[in-house]
Amino acid sequence: MKVVFVHGALVFDGAWWWHRMSEPLAGLGLGTMALEIPSCVAPPVAPAESMGDMHADADAVRAALDEEDEQIMLVGHSYGGMVITDAAAGHENVEHLVYVTSVMPELGETLAGFGAGREPGPWMDPNPEEGMMGLKAELMPGAFMQDCDEEAVAGALRRLTRQPLAAFGQSPRAVAWQEKPSTYVVCAEDRATPAQAQREFAGRADRVVELPTGHHPMLSHPERLALVLAEAAGPDGR
Question: Which one of 39, 77, 120, 213 is separated from 195 by 20 to 30 angstroms, measured CA to CA?
């Protein structure tokens, strides 16, 4: 089985975000691949109307899955949960879905809608006139990476980007977790996505695992996350 990763919002370079996972998963007999999504590109970014949205991201992931012959565990981090929910629906190669401190949407639910009635986090940097969303770099380490080492934090800050607001307002066209086994990884020390909100999403999953990590366990505790994925890939992961 191959583990295929989809990164979160407002960052680019998917391979970097998951690079610490390759070695521990290889040691557990699992290959890996990290995907790029069209709504998240390196700066300078194009005008919002010419960039991808969540559906384009899902289509790109699905196209990559179509090229794979082996069975897939599809892992979505944060916003990536929206993408894998859409992309994996009806795809025969996808054996298991893993949601890492992410949304886990139903039909009609959007990323923006999950925050309805609440003020966006102070680290968010929307620009409605441009139709774009970004992150305030000075607030990212404390909100998202308090348990990461300096190398990881520096690398993350170099990979921030802006993303079309349209991606946050789209719901999945189909819901893969209704048809496939799923695992939800609650990151209990996440300061950006509260653990209680994660546990509410996790109620939709077949299996729930909690890790004592912040928002990016693939950077702060890759070995722990690798063990969770390997267990989900095994015969009891269904």
Answer: 39
Grouping H, G, I as helix, E, B as strand and the rest as coil, residue 102 is: coil
Domain annotation for the chain: domains and CATH numbers: 2-233 (3.40.50.1820)
Helix (H, G, I), strand (E, B) or coil at 211: strand
Instruction: Please give the average per-residue pLDDT across 131-150, as a whole number.
Output: 97
The pLDDT score that the predictor gives to residue 96 is 98
Q: Which long-range contacts (CB under 8 A, 24 or more apart) does 56-63 make?
A: 57/6, 57/83, 57/87, 57/167, 58/82, 58/83, 58/84, 58/86, 58/87, 58/172, 58/173, 59/87, 60/35, 60/36, 61/4, 61/6, 61/35, 61/37, 61/87, 61/88, 62/87, 62/88, 62/91
Separation in Å, CA 85 to CA 93, 99, 159, 164, 213: 14, 9, 24, 19, 24
Sheet with 72-77: strands ordered across: 31-35, 2-6, 72-77, 94-100, 182-187, 207-211
Say yes or no to pLDDT of 116 above 80: no
Q: What is the mean pLDDT of the chain?
A: 95
- pLDDT tens-digit map of 7-18: 999 999 999 999
Largest CA distance in the chain: 50
